[in-house]
Amino acid sequence: MENYPILFPSSTSFHSPRLSLSPPDAISSSSQVFLGLQDESNVPASHASRENEANPSKNKETKVRKPRYAFRTRSRIDILDDGYRWRKYGQKAVKNNRFPRSYYRCTHEGCDVKKQVQRLSVDESIVVTTYEGVHSHPVEKPRDNFEDILNQMQIYSSFQ
DNA sequence: CGGATTTGACCAGCGC
DNA sequence: GCGCTGGTCAAATCCG
Q1: Distance, angstroms, CA A3 to C1' B13?
Q2: For the segment A54-112, what is each residue's pLDDT rounded down to a tens digit?
């Protein structure tokens, strides 16, 4: 969990969340985005809810292994508007890192995509965003202007 | 006033 | 078994 294995999806139909930079100078001019495809670590879906704890032995909870995608972004701001609506549900201090890690969940009903945002302490200009799961609904974005698309193309072409 | 955020508690997994 | 660590919950708080 120190550094994510960064490997580049070559021919994979990688469906990436779109990064759009809300403030125009949010990312430095030589912006880079590294895409890391974390190998499917089997995340136990979630701890059995501690409220309805009727039969703890019943839920053996098939180990759903959700895909996790790590995005390393060189940015000064740590919240990138990727077009989805996120609700923050937690924040923890990570060891060997003086910056906390934030946990977000997609607010769309029925869509439980999670993401966590973490800033590297070795280089505080790098923000690691880890997506977990895939959205099952279209992006709700108020406006999709050319400028954003061009920005994305700039970003994604920087490592090809 | 309603939805989002904050923040400490809680819980499970893992290493020792 | 115990303590540390990461992930989540939920009540309180904030903010539009």
Answers
A1: 20
A2: 343 343 444 455 566 666 666 555 556 667 888 999 999 888 788 889 999 988 877 87
Q: Which residue is nearest to nucleotide B11 (CA to C1')?
A: A47
Q: How distant is C1' of B12 from CA of A130, in Å?
A: 21
DSSP E strands in chain A: the ranges are 33-38, 68-74, 86-93, 100-106, 114-119, 126-132
CB A117 within 8 A of CB A102: yes
Q: Quick one: which H or E segment has residue A147? A: helix A146-156
Whole-number Å distance between alpha carbons of A101 and A86:
15
